[in-house]
Amino acid sequence: MRRLFGSVRARATLGATLVVAVALVAAGAAVLLSLRSNLVDQAGTKAEREARDVASQLLTATSHDQVDLGDDSPVQVVDEGRRLVAASEGLERISGTATDEVRPTTRAGGTGGTTGSDDSDDDADDDTESREAGEIGDVEFTDGSATVDGDTEDYRFAAVPVETQDNGTLTVWAGGSLDAEQSAVDTTTTAMLIGFPLLIGVVAGATWLVTRRALRPVEGIRREMAAITASEDLARRVPEPDTHDEVARLARTTNVTLAALETSVERQRRFVADASHELRSPIASLRTQLEVGAAHPELLDVPGAVEDTVRLQRLAADLLLLARLDAGEGPGDKRLDLGEVARREARGRDGVTVEAVDVEAVGSRGQLERVIGNLLDNAQRHARAVIGVTVRREGAWAVVEVADDGDGVAEADRERIFERFVRLDEARSRDDGGAGLGLAIARDVAARHGGTLTVRDAPAGGALFELRLPIV
Predict the structure, then answer these.
(1) Which residues, other chains included, contact 440 with Cβ-Cβ below 8 Å and sequence gap of 6+?
(2) DSSP state, 472?
């Protein structure tokens, strides 16, 4: 059960079914209430019309026997003392009116079921009644039941008072049958009890099929992702539906993620291969020198061994820094003066001139020192005689420029030189031991500090590297 309702398809179907069921129940209840109210009002209107008709006859009749009370609906005429003075033919039982009597009782002094009044009654009437003779009062409604000719039904009773000249105030009770209301409500309820479950079933089935079709591309994406995971082939891509909905956007985003992952993995593989290649040379050289020294101590090249060891140390440090940068190491929040950093890194280097103003930036002191140092190392490898370092403020940016008087960098190679382990042929011929990581490290550090590192031609020839960092 948990597995079944753990799917989006099942939850969507269940949710849609519940919403439709609640809406149908609410709508059905509203329809039934409205239908019952309308039919009750119709029964009340019929009862009122019949009661007023009898009341009109009482105003002109001299005897109750002259009044047509009908025989299809229950009708009673009662006096002020709630005594029955007339009733319709066939009335066998009644409830909900002023009296439960169904047959008038003839009293002494009365005729044909009319009521007489002594002087005390007349005095009471004079004191309590203000209605003029011939006036029909306002109607009131009650609910009850009655049996007419053996048929028992529920009725809506209308009570209409009328002031007669001979018999005082009489009240006519007439009933409108509620049988039609009950029949219509019962029929509607039965139809709803049969139709609503069928409709809910149709909605559930339609939702199940629609969601199945809508989620079919998602299942295709899932299967392809599972196959990619099993095969470790990041060159594969998930199918993209020919639509413009969320599923299509999910497929496109997944493919973009796979492409980025493929690039990252390929970059990592290339990085490992290049690192292994770069480590092989100094390690092999150092091993050869140590083996020669072990066999012939007098031939041991100690300075060469030290140089190879230093090269290994630098390469290991570069690889460690790149690993930390790839792992997302933050830039830090130390404030430092870039002009002071440039002057300190240029100190002791031949042919380097510095023109620097004090410009503060926020970041990692060690990483930014490494950037400027790497730019100076690169310039020294390619410069003929002169290297110039400039630090200035330019709007919201701190700008550090390192220019040399070498041959410069061809425009086609100005992005490639920032890739890891990339060294141009000319640089390889003049390389003093660099592994092609300095500029890659410099650009990565600049990007993580919210800045940029670019290269262009220097005004006097050679290459000019420009580092831009935000001023805070």
Answers:
(1) 322, 418, 419, 420, 421, 422
(2) -
List, as one string, the DSSP characters of 301-349.
Answer: -HHHHHHHHHHHHHHHHHHHHHHHHHTT-----EEEEHHHHHHHHHTT-
Sign of CA dihedral 190, 192, 198, 200: negative
Side by side, which strands form the sheet with 397-404? 352-356, 387-394, 397-404, 463-470, 452-457
Beta strands in 28-182 (DSSP E): 75-78, 84-87, 91-95, 140-148, 151-164, 168-177
Average pLDDT, the chain: 83
pLDDT in tens, 270-302: 777 777 777 777 788 888 888 888 888 877 777
**What's the CA angle centered on 260, arms 259 and 261, to 5 degrees?**
90
Cα gap 164→179, rounded to integer Å: 33
Pick the more confident residue, 396 or 166: 396
Beta-bridge partner residues of 150: none
Q: What is the pLDDT of residues 293-348, one digit of tens each?
A: 888 887 777 787 787 788 788 788 888 887 787 777 777 788 999 999 999 999 98
Specify the pairing of strand 452-457 against strand 463-470: antiparallel
CA distances from 463 to 114, 253, 443 (A): 129, 40, 16
- The CATH-assigned architecture of domain 334-470 is 2-Layer Sandwich (3.30)
Q: Tell me, what's the pLDDT at 215?
A: 81
Q: How far apart are CA 276 and CA 280, in angstroms?
A: 6
Report, as an integer, the average pLDDT of 409-419: 89
CA nearest to 467, candidates 407, 384, 414, 391: 391
Cα distances (Å, whole numbers) of residue 283 to 302, 428, 435: 15, 19, 14
What is the model's pLDDT at position 140?
Answer: 92
Instruction: Give the fold, CATH level 3, of 246-326.
Output: Helix Hairpins (1.10.287)
Round to whole Å and give the CA distance between 357 and 342: 10
Nearby residues of 444 by Cβ (< 8 Å), 6 or more positions away: 322, 325
Structure tokens belonging to residue 221: 């994406």
Model pLDDT for residues 45-100, shown as the tens digit of each residue: 998 999 899 888 888 776 767 788 877 789 999 988 889 988 888 888 999 998 99
pLDDT at 272: 77
Q: What is the pLDDT of residue 277?
A: 73
- Same CATH topology for 246-326 and 334-470: the answer is no
Q: Where are the domains of the chain?
A: 1-231, 246-326, 334-470
